[in-house]
Amino acid sequence: xxxxxxxxxxxxxxxxxxxxxxxxxxxxxxxxxxxxxxxxxxxxxxxxxxxxxxxxxxxxxxxxxxxxxxxxxxxxxxxxxxxxxxxxxxxxxxxxxxxxxxxxxxxxxxxxxxxxxxxxxxxxxxxxxxxxxxxxxxxxxxxxxxxxxxxxxxxxxxxxxxxxxxxxxxxxxxxxxxxxxxxxxxxxxxxxxxxxxxxxxxxxxxxxxxxxxxxxxxxxxxxxxxxxxxxxxxxxxxxxxxxxxxxxx
Length: 249
Description:
Strand order of the largest sheet: 7-6-5-10-8-11-9
Mean pLDDT: 89
Largest sheet: 7 strands, parallel
Distance between the termini: 38 Å
CATH topology of the largest domain: Alpha/beta knot
Number of strands: 11
Strand content: 15-25%
Radius of gyration: 19 Å
CATH class of the largest domain: Alpha Beta
């Protein structure tokens, strides 16, 4: 399996990766001007984990982060699942799959938040089309707080075809859409499920919607008509988690 380094910026993202999988942290670059408690805590954590930490000028960090906000720290991370195909990911799943499919999420902050909530819910992978999706970059990694390096993010050439492949494995494709006839909490949801969400405002594309076995809506009790895609993803994924826990008792 191919591996490639990725840059992660910001104290929270670097520390999260260091705590979750220190062996994947290749090296850390810390602003030589920072002598505060946060910088010292990071340096101590790196030493405990045996990770090389270098003090460098802030301008060098600017170059690593490609102009993004880095707070004085960046790290080079080995991405262990890089190069995995959808088949690779699905073949490796033990038990009922839980997937998140994003159609048209192009904002890096939204993608990072979706990866973070997907990881928290124990989602096996996040799937997105190559032509209408944000890629993993320092902003995504920072918002994801380590999830971008630990949750497989599979970009497919043809999303409709990928959904067909998912369905062939007896995984239900369930779309979340504001105008859907069924309430999320009343719907009969299977254990093996791929949740599909579109971008806020635009929603799912027609071909994506047509591939769904079921469409459900998140009931809205207040004045707002919709949720941010990452919040909606969290609601749907954790509803699946809740139902799985009830079946297990």
